Amino acid sequence: MYIQLNGQVIYYEKTGEGSPVILAHGNMETHKIFDVLTPELSRKHTVYALDTRGHGQSSVPREYHYEDMAEDIAAFVQALELVRPAFYGFSDGGITGLIAAAKYPAMFSALAVSGANLTPSGFKLLPKLSARMAYLKKKDPLVRLMLTEPHITRSELSRITIPALILAGAKDMIRKSETMRIASSIPDAILKILPEENHFSYVVRSPKLFPLLDEFFCAHSY
Hints:
Number of domains: 1
Radius of gyration: 16 Å
């Protein structure tokens, strides 16, 4: 399905019945990374899996900013008249969710994010160097986004008062200290560092994410 939001055409797929859940993928990905997760969640929830602006079947903007992506989520919730959906975002999708939840504290019933960072310095050294080299070669604006944003403060995160689940892999490309900072800045957030997992391994077309989200969303869906 397609919907126009904030001057962008956004593609999404809707499946299942029950309380609403929004899924947001990471940089240079599409909603298809949730092909394993979505059917499972759809047994209890109405799942909205989006292609964020500039990804998949959604239109390409002139430039990329996480704030704009967060506004897309807010506009999506309003346009479809969703009543306090739960939200899960991976990597860039997690960043988007943090920004949206901080700006609109009553919009979601629950917030789950994995592999998110607050600033570009939240990346470990080697992934950050790899991104810089990739940008020098191709000047991809999506890579530039990762190198220059976000800039989320502890004060902003403290505005998130809904239940929050913060995930990361023990071998994530995001620094453990960064993930811990996110969790400690959100009141009563649950932090889970997953042993032996990297940034992608438990998320992309993986069955491992479902039990974590199922328990959390069922406990806190509106």
